[in-house]
Amino acid sequence: MTAIVSVTNLRKSYDTGFEALKGINLEIEEGEILALLGPNGAGKTTLISTICGITVPTSGIITVGGFDTVHEYRAARSLIGLVPQEINLEPFETVQNTVRFSRGLFGKPRDDARVAEILKSLSLDDKATAKIKELSGGMKRRVLIAKALAHEPRVLFLDEPTAGVDVELRKDMWNVVADLKRQGVTIILTTHYIEEAEAIADRVGVISKGQILLIQDKAEMMAQMGKKQLRVDLAQPATTIPAALAHYDLTLEKDGNVLVYTYDTRKDRTGIRTLLNDMANAGLTMTDLQTQQSSLEDIFVGLVKDNA
Per its UniProt entry, which superkingdom is the organism in (predicted)? Predict the structure, then answer.
C-alpha cells in the first residue's frame, strides 16, 4: 500500500527546553485505520497537531499526499480533516450551517447535497436544522466529524473521539469510523480506550515520552507479543510449586488454589500435556482448567512500563 502520510525525524521542542516529540518516524498507509495509544503526556496530541499544521515542528519533514506541510501547507491541509478532543461549536447555530461554514473555510463551493449526504452518513440528517445547543454530547461529537469531512479530506485525524461518550454511543462511533474507511478515508485516531484500538484498528502504534515504541499490524502484534496462560484450578491449595515442576514458567494465585502456566504461542509445542502429567506425578489434582490470551492492554502496559 502507498503511504499517504509520511513523518521523518520529527522533533518538537519548546522554549522551556521540553522536547515533546523526539525523532518520530511514521508512515501511514492510504485507506488504513491507525490507532495511537499512549498515556497522558505521551505526545499523541502534539503529533497530530504538528501533522495538521497547528503546531510548527522544530525539525523534521512531514508530507501528506506528497505535499510538504510547511512549504506546501495549503495543499497538504486541504487533504486533512481534524476532529479535536474539545467540543467547541457555536451553540446557537444549526447543524447544517455549521458544516456548510467549515466547507467554505476550505474554499469549497456550496454543495447542500454533499452536506446532506455527510449528515446522513453520521445519522444527523434528522438534526440538520436543530441548534447545536439542543444536541447530546454524542451528537455533538458527530457534528465535529461532519465538520471535518465537509471539505472531503482524504485523511481524517480523530483525537480522543469517544472521550466522555457512553459505551453505546462509543460503539456507534466505531461503526461510523468503519463506514468512513469503506469510503476510502484514511483514519488516524488517538485513544485511551484499549478496546477501541482492538476493535477497529488495522495497525496499532504505541507512543510514550515523545517516542514511537512500536507500530505493528494489530493481529501480528497479538501473535508475536501476546502470551497465553493456562490456569489450573487445584483440588487442594499448594503452598509452593513442587521442585519437579520448577523448570516450567509457573506461578500460584488465589492463595495457592490456582496454578498459572505461561507459554509461548509461537512454539510448535506448548508443553501443556507434559505439564499435566508432571502435575499428577507431583501429587497435584486438577478440578478445572482454562486458557487465557494476553490482551492488547497487557501488551500496551508492558511496553510503556519498560519505557518508564
Answer: Bacteria
> Cα(172)–Cα(83) distance, rounded to whole angstroms?
16
**Going by C-beta distance under 8 Å and a sequence separation of 6 or more, which residues neighbour residue 296?**
194, 197, 198, 204, 218, 221, 222
Q: Which of 25, 157, 140, 133 is nearest to 86 (CA)?
A: 140
Residue 110 DSSP one-character state: P
Cα three-residue angle 118-124-127, rounded to 5 degrees: 130
SS3 188: strand
Asked whether residue 299 is assigned to any structural domain, the reply reads: no
User: What is the C-alpha separation between 37 and 221, in angstroms, rounded?
Assistant: 14
Q: DSSP code of 294?
A: P
98-134: per-residue pLDDT in tens? 999 999 999 999 999 999 999 998 889 999 999 999 9
Query: What confidence tens digit (pLDDT) does each residue in 185-226 have?
Result: 999 998 877 777 888 899 988 888 899 988 888 877 766 666
- Tell me phi and psi for residue 6, to 5 degrees: -130, 125
213 and 92 within one domain: yes
